[in-house]
Write a structure and sequence with these properties.
The protein is of the alpha/beta class. It has a domain of 198 residues: 3-Layer(aba) Sandwich (Rossmann fold). The chain has nine helices and nine strands. The strands form two sheets. Strands 3-2-1-4-5-7-6 form a seven-stranded mixed beta sheet, with helices on both faces. The longest helix is centred in the C-terminal third of the chain and has 25 residues.
């Protein structure tokens, strides 16, 4: 199917959707380093204008609209989160595009903290606005580790199916991985550990040129707080986070050897990006692009779910005919 991607960032979700066989026809993000990364890895269909300044008529039609609308104002990592945060209003631009373009499906992704914000009233309002655009809406918190990502990353998925479509997608996407005990019982793969995910990468100082394989020299501390946790190599990593501002200061996880920070390349592997996916801009920008991305393997699972839903819809139409 043809995909319109909003708030696309470096393209983690879009990469996964491509892996699932879909075509990205248009993407949008105002972060110029991320857009440069997107252009280098995908093509020239990235638009860097503010979405608020782009009329719906200038956006191509698509079968699916996807977007991880900015989450900083929603995140539980932001102690000052508020329903009045202007970043929290950008979801209405996604609603506007969906209402005007009427794709068959839409998928929105955000942080788990959105579920509890305003005692649940914020998510109810968001769901209502998506529904009023003409869609049946469902939502679910998923763990990226259940889809082969070597990271405990809890994210909210919101799926919309246009009301005139008769199919009911299998939502959320069926997991491929689980805890070692459950995986054996259910016939799934065990969670991928961060140690396994990074085992193929040499130390940054070994002389080999690997893109983005530079790491923060910020001193390691072990106090259990975000960015200062002991990393257990045999388990998925804690959540990769983009905390910090555009001048630097992003929080970077410890390497599983617990002797240094992860390089940007290693952090990308924890997000399930392939080693050939190169990030533009300085190291701090690469860290931020990676941390804010949807893990591509989670994107692939979403893409396969959409493909199965569309196949079912076509089959139902054929039977009716």
């Amino acid at each position: 199917m043809k995909i319109v991607s909003l708030f696309s960032g470096a393209g983690g979700l879009d990469l996964g959707l491509k892996w699932a066989g879909h075509e990205i026809v248009w993407a949008n993000d105002i972060f110029l380093d991320a857009a440069a990364t997107y252009k280098a890895n995908f093509g020239n269909h990235i638009d860097t204008r503010d979405i608020r300044d782009i009329p719906s008529s200038e956006i191509p039609n698509g079968d699916v609209v996807v977007g991880g609308f900015p989450c900083q104002g929603f995140s539980v990592a932001n102690w000052g989160r508020s329903t009045d945060d202007p970043r929290n209003q950008l979801f209405r631009e996604m609603v506007r595009v969906i209402r005007d373009k009427q794709p068959r499906y839409f998928v929105a992704e955000n942080v788990k903290g959105l579920v509890s914000m305003g005692k649940g009233k914020v998510l109810e309002q968001i769901t209502t606005e998506f529904s009023d655009a003409g869609y049946r809406v469902c939502r679910q918190v998923v763990n990226a580790a259940d889809y082969g990502v070597p990271q405990m990353r809890m994210r909210l998925l919101i799926l919309g199916v246009r009301e005139d479509l008769g199919n009911e997608p299998s939502f959320p996407p069926l997991p491929s991985h689980s805890t070692p005990t459950k995986a054996k019982m259910l016939g799934l793969h065990p969670w991928l550990s961060v140690g396994e995910a990074l085992a193929h990468l040499p130390e940054p100082e070994d002389g080999r040129h690997i893109p983005n394989h530079e790491y923060s020299l910020y001193k390691l501390r072990f106090n259990g707080h975000l960015g200062h946790r002991f990393i257990e190599p045999s388990r998925p990593a804690p959540t990769v986070t983009g905390r910090g501002d555009e001048r630097g200061g992003v929080v970077v996880l410890h390497h599983p050897n617990n002797q240094r920070r992860m390089s940007a390349r290693e952090l990308a592997a924890v997000q399930s990006f392939p080693d050939g996916f190169v990030f533009s801009g300085p190291k701090s920008s690469a860290y931020r692009q990676i941390a804010n991305a949807v893990p591509p393997l989670l994107g692939k699972a979403i893409g396969l779910m959409l493909a199965e839903a569309e196949f079912t819809c076509i089959a139902l139409k054929s039977e009716a005919a």
